[in-house]
């Protein structure tokens, strides 16, 4: 873990947006399932679109990690992989949630997490090339970005992958263009979520970047907001953490999957949710 390292260019936590609501799919996306916008840490959280991942969302019992980190899945044509996240808040709370030792590295699946006293919320990320080499990027549309070579370490094995990272922005197309130009991850599609909310999806080697714009975004520019972790047994994990820390798992948008959110009272400082792996027991394309 890298708690003493200061994340350069960390952005402050965004102001609390409007109250969440349940919305349906707009007419031009009538072939897509409905999704909902539940509350996580007083922010509207939008579940990522399964179609953005195609056949590569983690199956039950299979992480979406590179083979060198254990059996799993990747997006092999992606040029970069997420290797690090920088968060504010209490180191102790992060370690307790992700079952990390008091003095060791804090790793979620194949992503290293640094807790910084110099920022609030989710305030930075790091990437390497898909082949493990350095990616020289310092910012993505104003978001603090570091070239970070993965340590290759694994955290608690129950955490299979970071399913997706959410970016809030006042201009989806500007932020998506920046992601493509700096990370080489093109915009796969844009989804009109209704109520003025739009979602854009970018795929990197080991996760999905979900870019969200809408009335809830009141700040200027792009900011990292939160992330979702795939856990092997969401019911056991939520039960072990207790109702004061996590909400009861409920059906997610994707058939067969469930989602549970970390409660604001847990004082983690970042919107975090957990999802079960995809339940469809079929071979991948």
What's the helix and strand layout?
Blueprint (H helix, E strand, L loop, with lengths): L21 E2 L11 E2 L2 E2 L2 E2 L5 H4 L26 E8 L3 H7 L9 E2 L2 E5 L6 E8 L9 E2 L2 E5 L11 E11 L2 H12 L3 E8 L2 E8 L2 E7 L8 E10 L2 H8 L8 E2 L6 E4 L10 E4 L10
Overview of the molecule:
This protein has 285 residues and is mainly beta. It has a domain at 79-232 and 239-274: 2,3-Dihydroxybiphenyl 1,2-Dioxygenase, domain 1, CATH 3.10.180.10. 11% of the residues lie in helices and 32% in strands. The protein has four helices and 18 strands. It has helices at 50-53, 91-97, 172-183, 234-241, and strands at residues 22-23, 35-36, 39-40, 43-44, 80-87, 107-108, 111-115, 122-129, 139-140, 143-147, 159-169, 187-194, 197-204, 207-213, 222-231, 250-251, 258-261, 272-275. It has an eight-stranded mixed beta sheet. A six-stranded mixed beta sheet has the order 6-7-5-8-10-9. The protein has a two-stranded antiparallel sheet with strand order 1-2. A hairpin with a 6-residue loop joins β16 (250-251) and β17 (258-261). The longest helix has 12 residues, at 172-183. It is globular. The chain starts with 21 loop residues before the first strand and ends in a 10-residue tail after the last strand.
Features:
mainly beta; six-stranded mixed sheet; 18 strands; 2,3-Dihydroxybiphenyl 1,2-Dioxygenase, domain 1; disordered N terminus; disordered C terminus; eight-stranded mixed sheet; 285 residues
Reported for the largest beta sheet, the result is: 8 strands, mixed
Helix fraction by DSSP (H/I, runs of at least 4): 10-25%
Mean pLDDT: 76
Any idea what the radius of gyration is?
A: 17 Å
What do we call the CATH homologous superfamily of one domain?
2,3-Dihydroxybiphenyl 1,2-Dioxygenase, domain 1
CATH class of one domain: Alpha Beta
CATH domain topology of one domain: 2,3-Dihydroxybiphenyl 1,2-Dioxygenase, domain 1
Spatial strand sequence of the major β-sheet: 12-13-14-11-15-18-17-16
What low-confidence regions span 5 or more consecutive residues with pLDDT below 50?
1-73, 281-285
Number of strands: 18
Secondary-structure class: mainly beta
For the record, give the distance between the C-alpha atoms at the N and C termini, rounded to a whole number. 36 Å
Quickly count the helices: 4
Order of helices and strands: EEEEHEHEEEEEEHEEEEHEEE
CATH architecture of one domain: Roll
Bulk shape: globular
β-strand percent reads 25-35%
């Amino acid at each position: 873990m890298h708690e003493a390292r200061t994340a350069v260019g960390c952005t402050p936590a965004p102001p609390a947006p409007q109250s969440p609501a349940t919305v349906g799919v707009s007419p031009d996306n009538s072939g897509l399932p409905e999704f909902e916008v539940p509350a996580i840490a007083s922010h509207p959280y939008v579940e990522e679109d399964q179609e953005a991942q195609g056949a590569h969302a983690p199956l039950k019992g299979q992480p979406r990690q590179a083979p060198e980190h254990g059996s799993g899945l990747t997006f092999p044509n992606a040029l970069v992989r997420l290797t690090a996240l920088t968060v504010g808040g209490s180191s102790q709370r992060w370690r307790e949630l992700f079952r990390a030792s008091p003095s060791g590295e804090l790793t979620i699946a194949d992503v290293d997490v640094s807790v910084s006293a110099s920022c609030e919320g989710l305030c930075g990320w790091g990437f390497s090339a898909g082949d493990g080499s350095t990616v020289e990027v310092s910012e993505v549309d104003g978001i603090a970005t570091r070239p970070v070579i993965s340590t290759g370490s694994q955290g608690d094995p129950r955490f299979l992958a970071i399913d997706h990272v959410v970016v809030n922005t006042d201009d989806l197309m500007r932020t998506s263009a920046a992601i493509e130009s700096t990370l080489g991850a093109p915009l796969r599609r844009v989804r009109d979520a209704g109520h003025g909310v739009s979602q854009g999806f970018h795929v990197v080697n080991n996760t999905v970047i979900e870019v969200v714009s809408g009335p809830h975004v009141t700040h200027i520019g792009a900011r990292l907001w939160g992330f979702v972790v795939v856990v092997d047994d969401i019911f056991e994990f939520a039960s072990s953490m207790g109702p004061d820390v996590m909400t009861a798992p409920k059906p997610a948008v994707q058939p067969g999957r469930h989602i549970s959110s970390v409660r604001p009272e847990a004082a983690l400082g970042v919107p975090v949710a957990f999802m079960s792996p995809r339940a469809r027991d079929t071979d991948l394309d």
